[in-house]
């Protein structure tokens, strides 16, 4: 998702990553810059909503900002940072045990492929 949003417009990812500053409730009072940032926020949210499964959509549809939605999606897909660290530790342990038991040179590329695919989830 990170790459997809940045590929569409770098500013889309910045809104997701940093969040949107508090805007006045009355939209008639918004400046041109506030309108642009709000549009980026809504565009980011729309792209994320289109990319997720309907089960996850129901969990994030009430979010008010792209950052809030991104944070919830991270919890849904990756869990807390402790859970993610534990999962990465298990993957690394598997990789080392697999690598040390492999006898051929071609099988040593498999651990790198598994690691690369696991790093792509963030």
From TrEMBL:
Disordered: region residues: 101-122
Database matches in Pfam families: Retrotran_gag_2
Polar residues bias (residue ranges): 109-122
Lineage: superkingdom: Eukaryota
PANTHER family per the UniProt record, alphabetical: DUF4219 DOMAIN-CONTAINING PROTEIN-RELATED, OS06G0684500 PROTEIN
Name by which UniProt lists this protein: Uncharacterized protein
Organism: Colocasia esculenta (Wild taro)
């Amino acid at each position: 998702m990170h790459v997809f949003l940045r590929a569409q417009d770098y500013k889309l990812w910045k809104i997701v990553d940093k969040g949107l500053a508090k805007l006045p409730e009355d939209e008639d009072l918004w400046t041109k810059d506030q309108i642009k940032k709000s549009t980026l926020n809504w565009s980011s949210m729309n792209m994320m909503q289109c990319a997720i499964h309907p089960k996850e959509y129901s969990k994030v549809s009430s979010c008010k900002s792209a950052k809030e939605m991104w944070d919830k999606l991270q919890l849904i897909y990756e869990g807390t940072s402790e859970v993610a660290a534990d999962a990465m530790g298990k993957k690394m342990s598997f990789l080392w045990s697999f690598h040390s038991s492999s006898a051929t040179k071609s099988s040593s590329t498999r651990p790198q492929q598994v690691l690369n695919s696991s790093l792509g989830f963030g």
